Input
Amino acid sequence: MLTLAAVACSPDPGTPGDAHTVADVIVGLDTTPESGTPDDAMPNVVNQDVPVDRGAAPDTGCTTDEDGDGALAMSCGGTDCDDHDAHRFRGNAEVCDTAGHDEDCDPCTVASATTRDGDADMDTFLAAQCTNAFTGEAPRCDPMIVTVDEAARQVRGRDCNDDRTRGGADVRPNQTEVCGNMVDDNCDGRVDYLDALYEDRDNDGRGNREVRMAGTCRPGWVTNDEDCDDARSETFRGAREQCGLPRLAQPVQHERVRCRQNQQQQRRDDASRPS
Output
């Protein structure tokens, strides 16, 4: 073996003395054995110019469709936000469900825009039972359509009653809260709660605009502010004028004239109404 290596690496007579027939494969081989060197001594063999096989390039997964839905993963430029779920990819039809399954990879769409499967009572608001789960940063959705619950990591519709058989058509986010019906009419999570209640001390059904509060409906408070004198039940906006009743700090003569004028106007109004 040593003889073959020495021959293979011997300089060709017509080449420079530092050239070898096998380029730099066998380095440091002394073709002139020194005395005392064993005949079976091995040369210092290293690989320099011969390329090292490091195996094939790692598969990034961008050329495969793991869930078989026909869409590549978004991480490799595709439209599939979950390449392990064949029912999730962009362009897929969204379905209203309580499981939080996002079919179209858009957490803000919680029901089908075509079939309106999330609006059974047809009041144009999607049911709160239509949900999508999300991870990472909270999505920026239209607050008029859905509610983004960051604590629950969930997006859901805003209609708290989508059942027509239970009065769902009259319950929706933009509805006026009705006092005393024990229903959350406007789906704000509070039953019979209003941002503006007005005191009604004379119990004429009209509130004093000067005394206002927010809270749950209760006796002695109403939702309107139509009373200009909350100490007299016969005095409020729209009340029928009565002659002979004194007014606050007004001359009697002036009051009588105004009273007659009001009576005449009321007769004209009555006459103009259809019988």
Observations:
- Strands lie at 131-133, 146-149, 154-157, 193-199, 208-216, 221-222.
- Helices lie at 2-8, 252-272.
- Residues 1-11, 15-29, 41-58, 248-252 have pLDDT under 50 and may be disordered.
- The chain has three domains: 1-52, 79-175, 192-261.
